[in-house]
Amino acid sequence: MAIATSAPNGGANWEVEVKFHCGDFSPLREKIKEMGGDFLGLGEEVDTYYRHPSRDFAETGEALRIRTQSNSRSLDTDVQNITGVAHQMSHLANATSPNGRSVLCYKGPKLSGPAKVRREIETDVVGEEIQPLLEAVGFLPVLTISKTRESWRLGKDGKICVICLDEAHGLGKFVELEVVAKIEEREEAQARVLDLAGQLGLGEKEERSYLRMQLEKCR
To answer: Does residue 2 fall inside a structural domain?
Structure first.
């Protein structure tokens, strides 16, 4: 996700995440606000995933994607009107980023544990050259997934958790809880996201990524 950024080895560049199905964001949004959550923004995200020319990412558990974000609404968005704005933005899945900026992201194999733990490396790219560049060296697009994402932040003193309310187009509504931590902090970070999931009353975890869900749907 866009909140995480790249860092030197040993830095805070490990994504600790859990995902849940959600039928209605409204009660959950109210709960987040009651707990002191800060609204970060609302926007459309379009993710294009690529296959490696010489190894199977499905077997290794890795992923490479380009994310384009568009029509983002930030902290000045009227929180009371989020539902209406999100509905309008759900029709903009094919819109392009107004400034041509995208994010290239690599996700490493998952580590064992009750939450999904992966190394994440991200870098901003400008313009449209990155896609033909990847294809020129053998990375070919697999599929594209779009979603409307509403992001919130909970926590303080370095113990921050980002909550994403996602409407993944064609897949449904989901909640993602994410912490970005150092590798040696992964156990505490997993406990933190699972504890927050309990406080929010979320149900059974969805272990699959959006990419895996879409691939299964296309079979």
So the answer is: no
In the three-class reduction of DSSP (H, G, I as helix; E, B as strand; rest coil), residue 128 is classed as coil
- Reported as a single tens digit per residue, the pLDDT across 106-125 is 999 999 899 999 999 999 99
CA atoms of 83 and 179, how far apart (whole Å): 25
User: How big is the CA angle at 69 (ends 147 and 124), to the nearest 5 degrees?
Assistant: 130
Q: Which of 198, 203, 200 is nearest to 29 (CA)?
A: 200
Helix, strand and coil content of the chain, in percent to the nearest 5, comes to 25, 40, 35
Closest CA to 71 of 38, 36, 96: 96
Say how far apart CA 102 and CA 100 lie, in whole Å.
7
Burial of 46 (0-12, 13-18, 19+ CB in 10 A): buried
Domain of 38 in residue numbering reads as 14-218
Q: What is the pTM of this model?
A: 0.83
Domains contained in the chain, number? 1
